[in-house]
């Protein structure tokens, strides 16, 4: 969570994703490898190193430890499974380790080019191996294994070792494709798919420009202080501003890079230009892009995703033409679409009312559910004094007012995919549920602690409240959940604990740091400058907010929490501040609701399937090696494909259904908890004692 900026946690992706990010290529395409630093790179490196040294919360010196972390982070970002570089490369890079920080401090980033150009050479060497392996026979009946633990993996020392590593990796990839039912005559379709994947991805790596390499290298440096201190290039900063304002100008389609070099339409944004036009479909491939009614069609096959996006974005009212290879396999078509201002509804608060349980008169309880994917705020509109600029608190207040008009009995606030956002929005939104008092405490690098109170003495919703969390609920969402729990204002339900990000970042425009007048676009530094604490003095750092009622969930067991990241700030405490508890939730109520939920979960076939899958997932996750014997591999994957389960869990968090709130078995249990909570309150008011399990 950041002052004026959205928190975007670096995902600690599971091994399955690291395994899939293999690159290799040789092609007739002319490369555009980065040759030397750009004209502004020295200035950017100088100001980044200066700001980190002076402003970072840890006040960690720019010493040999940071140099070692920097090299380790850089190498892991490029070659996490240690399949490209030779050990001799690593030995050579390590000779320069001690001086890395001094070089960055002087604005010298030539080491980044030394490493990256070596990396590209190794990619080209490996593709020859890949093509050789794919052209030959592979025996899937022998008992051999491939290492999947990157800590256990070793860099190859010889070309023969590298070839053997890649032979095993290709066998693994072919087995994965077979599980996914990508097959053809004698497996040729799967082999062709792998060949295209490696060639296409590698072409994009060769297209890395100096701005992108600078971002990679400076992030290796900044993330050596903590996972959330990052350098944003001008392009990354523009994308960030779009994410915070929830607005862009374009066609309204989410894109991704495909295995075969095409840019693929991943999602059509409801209400956008493409949605209204109706001709584009999910999984359509984009082959070329033209500007205006008659501009030249530019081939975008094998073009970097960011560059394709730049071609398609543009001012509203202008025309962009897309040459599409339709998902249904028909002939290529060209569609002209008029760009519009697109509202990014995916991250916007939305509410829906559900019926659940029964009141004494037989009528159902009405439960209002608010899904909140982020704490957004249009910073630019705020600075310019735009009336009713985009604000999370304003949107949620309107939803709560609508719930009140509809006569809802309780509110469920769903923060399961909320990665954080603006600090002021977290504070003001929490204030919608409490009358007054401190919401969060913030400590700076000098140890000064400042409480931030609820800015509005009013309450938008005073009734029963349930807050849903997951391990993806981070930063600003943890401020809200922690305060609600400290005030005994509502129930926290979901994963065992939230993400555990208890630090505050500020966004510093680098152009403005160097030039007071007409600053050039040099990107920005997102830097950790403070740590936040709950009203009771506890930090959420590395621990998160622990749920009052835990529900079985695979995401609890994913390595995506703050403690799973490299070099996180340590947990600590500050003195509690005075605040008035609501006592809406007491230890007795928590215990009673926990027991009732446990009974339902134990009798739920869907939840019990989750419990069984978690056990199998943990068993597979603990393995250091994966078998390459086809019969054994298929038997293991038939029981549970841990990679796919992880992928589905991540996909659900990132790309939730935007049409409506999904009432699945998980939300049904949250609604049942809310109904139990309402019944307990009703019984308590009537002096009827405890609530029976039947309710």
Name given to the CATH homologous superfamily of the largest domain: 2-enoyl-CoA Hydratase, Chain A, domain 1
Quote the CATH topology of the largest domain. 2-enoyl-CoA Hydratase, Chain A, domain 1
Low-confidence stretches: 2-31, 182-186, 689-695
| Secondary-structure-derived class | alpha+beta
Query: Any idea of the CATH class of the largest domain?
Result: Alpha Beta
For the residues shown, what is the average pLDDT?
A: 88
Tally of separate domains: 3
Per DSSP, what share of the residues sits in E-state strands of 2 or more residues? 15-25%
Over the alpha carbons, how many angstroms does the gyration radius reach? Answer: 27 Å
**Percentage of helical residues?**
25-40%
Distance between the termini: 39 Å
Shape: globular
């Amino acid at each position: 969570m950041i002052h004026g900026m959205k928190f975007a946690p670096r995902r600690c992706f599971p091994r399955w994703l690291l395994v899939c990010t293999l690159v290799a290529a040789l092609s007739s395409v002319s490369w555009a490898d980065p040759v030397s630093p750009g004209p502004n790179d020295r200035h950017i490196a100088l100001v980044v190193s200066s700001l980190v040294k002076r402003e970072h919360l840890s006040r960690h010196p720019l010493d040999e430890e940071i140099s070692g972390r920097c090299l380790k982070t850089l190498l892991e970002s490029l070659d996490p499974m240690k399949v490209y570089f030779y050990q001799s490369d690593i030995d050579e890079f390590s000779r320069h380790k001690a001086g890395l920080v001094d070089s960055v401090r002087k604005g010298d980033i030539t080491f980044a080019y030394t490493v990256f150009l070596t990396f590209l050479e190794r990619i080209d060497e490996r593709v020859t191996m890949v093509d050789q392996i794919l052209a030959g026979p592979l025996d899937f009946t022998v008992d051999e294994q491939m290492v999947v633990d990157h800590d256990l993996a070793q860099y190859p020392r010889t070309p023969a070792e590298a070839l053997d590593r890649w032979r095993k990796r290709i066998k693994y990839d072919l087995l994965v494709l077979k599980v996914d039912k990508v097959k053809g005559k004698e497996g040729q379709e799967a082999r062709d798919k792998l060949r295209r994947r490696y060639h296409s991805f590698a072409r994009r790596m060769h297209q890395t420009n100096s701005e992108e390499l600078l971002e990679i290298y400076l992030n290796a440096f900044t993330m050596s202080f903590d996972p959330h201190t990052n350098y944003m290039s001008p392009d990354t900063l523009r994308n960030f501003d779009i994410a915070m304002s929830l607005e862009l100008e374009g066609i309204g389609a989410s894109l991704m890079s495909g295995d075969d070099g095409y840019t693929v339409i991943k999602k059509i944004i409801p209400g956008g230009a493409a949605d209204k036009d109706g001709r584009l479909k999910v999984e359509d491939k984009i082959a070329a892009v033209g500007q205006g009614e008659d501009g030249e069609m530019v081939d975008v096959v094998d073009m970097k995703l960011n560059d394709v996006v730049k071609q398609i974005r543009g001012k509203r009212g202008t025309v962009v033409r897309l040459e599409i290879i339709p998902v249904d396999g028909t002939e290529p078509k060209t569609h002209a679409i008029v760009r519009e201002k697109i509202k990014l509804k995916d991250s916007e608060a939305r509410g829906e009312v559900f019926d659940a349980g029964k009141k004494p008169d037989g009528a159902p309880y009405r439960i209002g559910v608010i899904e909140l994917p982020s704490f957004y705020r249009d910073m630019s509109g705020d600075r310019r004094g735009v009336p009713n600029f985009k604000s999370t608190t304003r949107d949620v207040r309107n939803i709560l007012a609508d719930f009140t008009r509809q006569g809802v009995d309780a509110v469920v606030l769903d923060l399961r995919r909320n990665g954080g956002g603006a600090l002021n929005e977290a504070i003001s939104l929490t204030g919608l549920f409490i009358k007054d008092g401190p919401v969060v405490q913030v400590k700076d690098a000098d140890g000064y602690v400042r409480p931030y109170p609820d800015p509005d003495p009013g309450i938008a919703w005073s009734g029963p409240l349930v807050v849903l969390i997951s391990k993806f609920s981070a930063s600003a969402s943890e401020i809200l959940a922690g305060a609600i729990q400290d005030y005994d204002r509502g129930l926290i339900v979901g994963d065992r604990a939230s993400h555990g990000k208890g630090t505050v970042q500020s966004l510093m425009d680098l152009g403005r740091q160097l030039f007071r007048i007409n600053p050039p676009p040099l990107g920005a530094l997102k830097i950790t400058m403070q740590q936040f604490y709950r009203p009771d003095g506890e930090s959420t750092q590395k621990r998160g907010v622990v749920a009052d009622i835990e529900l079985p969930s695979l995401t609890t067991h994913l390595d995506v929490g703050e403690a799973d990241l490299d070099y996180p700030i340590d947990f600590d405490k500050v003195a509690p501040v005075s605040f008035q508890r609501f006592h809406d939730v007491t230890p007795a109520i928590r215990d009673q609701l926990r027991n009732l939920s446990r009974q339902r979960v134990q009798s739920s076939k869907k939840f019990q399937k989750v419990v069984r899958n978690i056990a199998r997932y943990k068993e597979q996750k603990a393995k250091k090696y994966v078998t390459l014997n086809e019969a054994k591999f298929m038997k293991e994957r038939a029981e549970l494909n841990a990679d796919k389960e992880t992928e589905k869990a991540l996909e659900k968090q990132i790309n939730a259904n935007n049409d409506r709130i999904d009432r699945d078995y998980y939300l049904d249990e949250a609604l049942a908890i809310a109904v139990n909570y309402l019944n307990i309150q009703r019984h308590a008011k009537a002096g009827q004692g405890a609530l029976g399990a039947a309710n």
